[in-house]
Automatic annotation (TrEMBL):
<dbReference type="Pfam" id="PF13302">
    <property type="entry name" value="Acetyltransf_3"/>
</dbReference>
<dbReference type="InterPro" id="IPR016181">
    <property type="entry name" value="Acyl_CoA_acyltransferase"/>
</dbReference>
<feature type="domain" description="N-acetyltransferase">
    <location>
        <begin position="11"/>
        <end position="182"/>
    </location>
</feature>
<dbReference type="GO" id="GO:0016747">
    <property type="term" value="F:acyltransferase activity, transferring groups other than amino-acyl groups"/>
</dbReference>
<protein>
    <submittedName>
        <fullName>Acetyltransferase (GNAT) domain-containing protein</fullName>
    </submittedName>
</protein>
<dbReference type="InterPro" id="IPR000182">
    <property type="entry name" value="GNAT_dom"/>
</dbReference>
<dbReference type="InterPro" id="IPR051531">
    <property type="entry name" value="N-acetyltransferase"/>
</dbReference>
Length: 194
């Protein structure tokens, strides 16, 4: 099953491609110090961002239906979203996926990350019959944590990773959120009642 185009109230999520507009999105995002604040000490070069794009495009071929999408608001690209394959001990785990999102700063704090993430979670649970969706971020990244919570995900652990070149805030650790299909279906039932 190829990745579908997914439409929400305000967004269209189109599968990531090798088009120049999609590559340029990665260059713009990865070159922004504010976007990369919780990811890297220095913004990425265009060559590094292009390699980042290629890596994520390759990941989109590992499990049918999973991968990366580019979010559009009308005809404007606002960022990327992912429902990415999970790798456990070197093997792809097809029953769970990692949720992710990275938006251009002009589109922050308007609910787009939550809207896109929820749409991908709905697709993952309803169409792909995933058992679980998970996500990780830095403990100090309140915005990303808020998005995962708003999607019904629960904090399951805090952990520390030894990075070669840690970014500020690393000392506070990383956090992991998860939601299973049963919990997702319970949330969907609650929303239908109102």
């Amino acid at each position: 099953m190829p990745q579908p185009k997914i439409t929400t109230t305000r967004l269209i999520l189109r599968p990531l491609t090798s088009s120049s507009s999609h590559i340029n999105l990665f260059v713009d995002l990865d070159a922004s110090p504010i976007v990369m604040k919780y990811l890297e000490n220095e913004p990425l070069t265009p060559a590094q961002a292009t390699a980042d794009h290629a890596s994520r495009l390759d990941a989109s071929t590992k499990v049918d239906g999973l991968g990366y999408w580019v979010g559009y608001l009308d005809d404007k690209i606002i960022g990327w979203f992912s429902l990415a394959p999970t790798v456990v001990n070197g093997a792809v785990e097809a029953t769970q996926a990692e949720i992710g999102y990275r938006l251009l700063p002009g589109f922050w704090r308007q609910g787009y990350a939550k809207e896109g993430a929820r749409a991908l979670m709905k697709y993952g649970f309803d169409e792909l019959r995933l058992h679980e969706v998970w996500g990780q971020t830095m403990s100090v990244n309140a915005a990303s944590r808020g998005t995962m919570s708003a999607c019904g995900m629960q904090l399951v652990r805090r952990f520390w990773v030894d990075f070669e070149d840690p970014v500020p805030g690393t000392e506070e650790g990383e956090v992991e959120y998860r939601i299973g299909r049963d919990k997702w279906e319970d949330l969907a039932d609650e929303k239908r009642r109102f």
